[in-house]
Amino acid sequence: MESLRQDKTGIEALREVAARPLRLLIVAPSFDILGGQSVQAARLLSRLQEQRDLDVGFLPINPRLPGILRKLQSIKYVRTLVTSIAYLVSLFAQVPKHDVLHVFSASYLSFVIAPTPAILVGRLFRKKVLLNYHSGEAEDHLKRWRSSAIPTIKMVDALVVPSEYLVRVFAKFDLPARAIYNLIDTRKFRFRERMPLRPVFLSNRSLETHYGVDRVIKAFAIIQKEIPEAGLTVAGAGSQRNALEGLAASLNLQHTRFVGQVPPDTITEQYDDADIYLNGSEIDNQPLSLLEAFACGLPIVTTDAGGIPYIVTNEQTGFVVPRGDYQKLADCALRLLREPQIAKAFSERGLEECRKYSWAAVKDSWLGVYHELHHTPTNLAALAEHKPDEKSKVLTR
Predict the structure, then answer these.
(1) 303 forms bridges with which residues in the sheet?
(2) ω into 196 cis (within 30 of 0)
(3) Pairing outcome for strands 100-105 and 128-133
(4) Sign of the alpha-carbon dihedral angle for 256, 261, 262, 267
(5) C-alpha angle 147/152/372, rounded to 5°?
(6) Is 314 helix (H, G, I), strand (E, B) or coil?
(7) Which residue, 103, 20, 97, 100, is CA-closest to 61?
(8) Distance (Å, whole) CA 345 – CA 74
């Protein structure tokens, strides 16, 4: 009789779990660290909170300390220590309340500081962990940090990346991944046909070496020699800003603006003001700025770094030139101005391409992986022991 009562209690508990929404915790940078991950996390969070079958929470990897303690986060080195402690405390407080953790990840030291503690705490409390890896530096990261990064990644239950490019990178290290594209909120970006096409250019990337904004500036110098009235807006912040402003001054560029970091809710104005988007990346994955340019109707001229050719098809949705070749970057931009019908065709095809990054296109993939994880007892370490065709069946169906 006692055994029957216990069985009944267990069944009731299972029914209760099945009836309530899946409790999902997104672990990612907040807008205090403005970049692709924070923008993507905010967009995804907004959409997921509309789902009745999910109870979604957000845990920032960069929590703000309360009251007077907030001042400690303005002190170099001390900031990293106190923020890390606050983040770890938040993990222990929040992780036990959720079923699945969706952990955003970059590479190198950032991987150690942000996703690794979330993965470890998730495993400690026996929660399902989804690692959402975004960095275009993945291959170099996994080679250099092989002994720590790969075992850590194998602890997670699912590895999701925003591009087929990264799926192939991780496969080189026997790490099965699935691609779910980045999300663009097409409601917020206004498509505008640019006829006539003006020589007004935009770059919207972090001002770090690997994003090649110096190539954009050098290309623009070539363009301005031919079209003196041409203008360039450089949006973004980063360690290279002073050097880039110095480069622009040394080239005697006119009509060139460095506008700093632009908040996500006003960046659409920068896209709307421009007529051609220039990107000079040396290392990249699936830059949101290219997708946003598609959504706004900006014809694109870009390098072929990393996963970019998976987004922009040369001479179909934009011009794609070899990394580092700012002369070709300039030549292709000038060709758009000479042949505006090409730019028009790029814009139309780019808008169509952008549809695969809409919420309607990625919604089922995200909801599917969350519910699949909630009811599947495996993790990547187990999946990696399967044959390749078996891994593919599990992770790409």
Answers:
(1) 321
(2) yes
(3) parallel
(4) positive
(5) 145
(6) strand
(7) 103
(8) 48
Helices and strands (DSSP H and E) totals, the chain: 17, 12
Contacts of 173 (CB under 8 A, 6+ apart): 142, 146, 150
Using CB atoms within 10 A of its CB, is residue 396 exposed (0-12), middle (13-18) or buried (19+)?
A: exposed
CB 233 within 8 A of CB 201: yes
Identify residue 39 by its one-letter amino acid code. V
Please name which of 156, 170, 158, 81 lies closest in space to residue 120, comparing C-alpha atoms: 156
Reduced 3-state DSSP string for 149-171: HHHHHCCCCEEEECCHHHHHHHH
Return per-residue pLDDT of the chain as tens, 397 residues.
Answer: 555 555 545 445 444 555 689 999 999 999 887 788 999 999 999 999 999 999 999 999 999 877 776 777 677 767 778 888 999 999 999 999 999 999 999 999 999 999 999 999 999 999 999 999 999 999 999 999 999 999 999 999 999 999 999 999 999 999 999 999 999 987 888 899 999 999 999 999 999 999 999 999 999 999 999 999 999 999 999 999 999 999 999 999 999 999 999 998 899 999 999 999 999 999 999 999 999 999 999 999 999 999 999 999 999 999 999 999 999 999 999 999 999 999 999 999 999 999 999 999 999 999 999 999 998 765 666 656 554 444 433 333 3
How does strand 178-179 pair with strand 200-204?
A: unpaired
Place of tokens 């952990």: 103
Q: Are 277 and 292 in contact (CB under 8 A)?
A: no
Could you tell me if 158 and 369 are in contact, meaning their C-beta atoms sit under 8 angstroms apart?
A: yes
- Residue positions counted in the chain: 397
Radius of gyration of the chain (CA): 23
Answer for the pair 163, 310: CB distance below 8 angstroms, yes or no: yes
C-alpha–C-alpha distance, residues 195 and 212, integer Å? 29
